[in-house]
Design goal:
34% of the residues lie in helices and 21% in strands. It is an alpha/beta fold. It has two domains: 200 residues, 3-Layer(aba) Sandwich (Rossmann fold), CATH 3.40.50; 124 residues, Rossmann fold (3-Layer(aba) Sandwich), CATH 3.40.50. Helix 8 links the parallel strand 12 and strand 13. Helix 1 packs parallel to helix 7, helix 3 packs parallel to helix 4 and helix 8 crosses helix 12.
């Protein structure tokens, strides 16, 4: 569900991609707030590797949109300093695995500054991370690094799955006074929807039921929501009623929405592209089991990537979760 933002003039409906929605969100936020600055590798005149920042350099100039050196630690460290002095940086990591050089800055400083200063210093920084696979990229361009960030207290970690959420959630992330890791599924950049911008969807930290069902709950986020919906369609042909939830917010976790679905269906599977061992799905399964054990009719399943480094482009179709893999896993439950 989405709605126009009250009090703000809307544009005519048009079919836009997720990349275009993200671009519009950044632009509209920069128009509204002169303290917002944008920088990262090739985000300036080039418009970013995926053209998410296309045209922003020409509109706002080099004082607000600038290219950075190829040094992710420096990008985040600079953003932290800028935020401490009143700016609201939006930075891009370009690719998922490129964010690792910035790990120490994010974990040791970005996530801890409010706590370290007893609330005297907040860091309104958005770190945009294009992530996940299914684009024919090599290993350093297809990682799913969400578990690193969700295991770090002090960070909000979110991931949209469609253009409307991409716009609304990024606007909300930019307006947050605390750091947000904004994970953008690369394979969904070219997904399309007809929208009248600006648009406001559910709150950024809320999960959303995107398909009602009674037999099974599938939990997805980012790139796997589309996969879960496809599995639900296949399941319907076999008289299996599957409910699909788009988690949207990985941290904090929307216990209320997900637990309500679990208590209705009694069976849950969580889907992600990252490896299974130690992955985000393990925390979800443990959390839900602790809170809803007596409502479960079967163990919570994880349908994930394999416990290997991301494979070459020719093999990623075998690595990624698919609707068939989901239904095969579900069929292994004992059904009364």
């Amino acid at each position: 569900m989405s709605a126009v933002i009250p009090g703000i003039a809307t544009r005519a409906p048009e079919t836009i991609t997720m990349a275009s929605a993200l671009n519009a969100a950044i632009r509209d936020a920069m128009v509204d707030d002169p303290t917002i600055v944008l920088f990262g590798e090739d985000v300036g005149p080039l418009g970013g590797v995926f053209r998410v920042t296309d045209g922003l350099y020409a509109e706002f100039g080099e004082t607000r949109v600038s290219d950075s050196p190829l040094a992710e630690s420096g990008i985040v460290g600079t953003a932290i300093g800028m935020a401490m002095y009143g700016l609201r940086p939006v930075v891009e990591m370009q690719f998922d695995a490129f964010s690792y050089p910035a790990f120490q800055q994010i974990v040791s400083h970005l996530a801890k500054m409010r706590n370290r200063t007893r609330g005297k210093i907040t860091l309104p920084i958005v770190i945009r991370i294009p992530y996940a696979g299914d684009i024919g990229g090599v290993e350093h361009h297809s990682d799913s690094s969400e578990a690193y960030w969700t295991s770090t207290p002090g960070l909000t970690v979110v991931s949209p799955s469609n253009p409307a959420d991409a716009y609304s959630m990024l606007r909300e992330a930019i307006s947050s006074d605390d750091p947000v890791i904004f994970m953008e599924p690369k394979s969904r950049y070219w997904s399309k929807a007809e929208l009248s911008l600006p648009v406001q969807t559910a709150p950024m930290t809320s999960a959303v039921v995107v398909r009602e069902g009674t037999d099974v709950t599938l939990l997805g986020y980012g790139p796997t929501v589309k996969t879960a919906l496809a599995a639900a369609e296949l399941g319907a042909a076999e008289d299996l009623s599957i409910e699909v939830i788009d988690l949207r917010s990985l941290s904090p976790f929307d216990d209320a929405t997900v637990s309500a679905s679990l208590r209705k269906t009694g069976r849950v599977a969580v889907i992600h592209e990252a490896a299974q061992f130690g992955g985000y799905g393990a925390e979800v399964a443990a959390r839900l089991t602790e809170r809803n054990f007596f409502y479960l009719a079967a163990p919570i399943l994880r349908i994930t990537g394999f416990d290997i480094p991301y494979p070459s482009p020719k093999l990623e179709e075998y690595f990624l979760p698919t609707p068939d893999r989901i239904l095969t896993a579900i069929s292994r439950w004992e059904w009364n």
